[in-house]
Specification:
This protein is mainly β. The protein has two helices and 23 strands. The protein has a six-stranded antiparallel barrel with strand order 1-19-20-23-22-21. It has a four-stranded mixed beta sheet with strand order 5-6-4-10, with helices on one face. It is globular.
Length: 307
Amino acid sequence: MTQAVSGLSAALFRDETKKYAVTPALGDARDICFVSADDEANKVEIVVGATTAALSLSVVGTELTITSANVNGTATSTAAEIVDAVNEDVGASALFAARLPPGSKGGGVTGALAEVTAADGVGFTGLELVDSGDHLIYQAAVGSMYWDDGKTLTVKSNGVAVTTGFTVNFLRGMVTFDNVMTGHTITVDGTRRSELAFQKVAGLFDGKLKIDGKEIDTSSVDDDGWGSSIISSRSWEMSAGAFYYNGAIPLEALAVKYLWKFYSVLATTPFAIGWGAITSMENLVANPNDAQKQTVTVKGAGELYME
């Protein structure tokens, strides 16, 4: 695959469209996403026995029980080994398709997982937000963002639901109040999209990011002859000279809104994130294993902000 050595890079992630269950962000290459094969509320759990045994699977109705390999009660099955076992077992794969999160090799030992029911996102209750310091803006921690704007979100102040006097930024996981909330504990109940369930679909290289704002002239006699203006609606667009597409989804599906993460040269963590859609793609060639040295353009479908 061609490596970009200059400019800006961006990665396109597709949110899982079926019901899924994920491990609780264990990190260290230990996480797994279980996608419901029939888009139903199937259940999965991982147990660790007390007696040395090999990895095994059991299916009862709509529940998959994975018994991790262990040595004297210490789990030894890696995430990759569990994923392979589930996908190769006829009964287990009828309930779930297992996969590793983007970028994970699955070399870590997953360990036990309490029973989880596949759902359209990850539900949360009583998620406490952090006061930014001005007692107006309250923010969810990393790993608890990307709230689903298609699901009900309940905001509570000191345990009591409030319905007015605030705005919600679902992508950031942020609530901004109209008036200061000094001394209040702000919590939320809702559903978020899990990054563990994302699929990396495309990569853009050697790119340029442009952010525009529509200028409104505010010049007046008070400006002593100088011009003045303010910026109203803003937009962003990225164009790239090379891209990689893994071929996992139909081309027409690329035109819908997806989550884009932007990386500076040689960086491993994103510096910005936003929703956008591919508006043009030139000359896609047959080999999906190499970067295509052609032009692709992405336009924003909402806010772009620093992670």
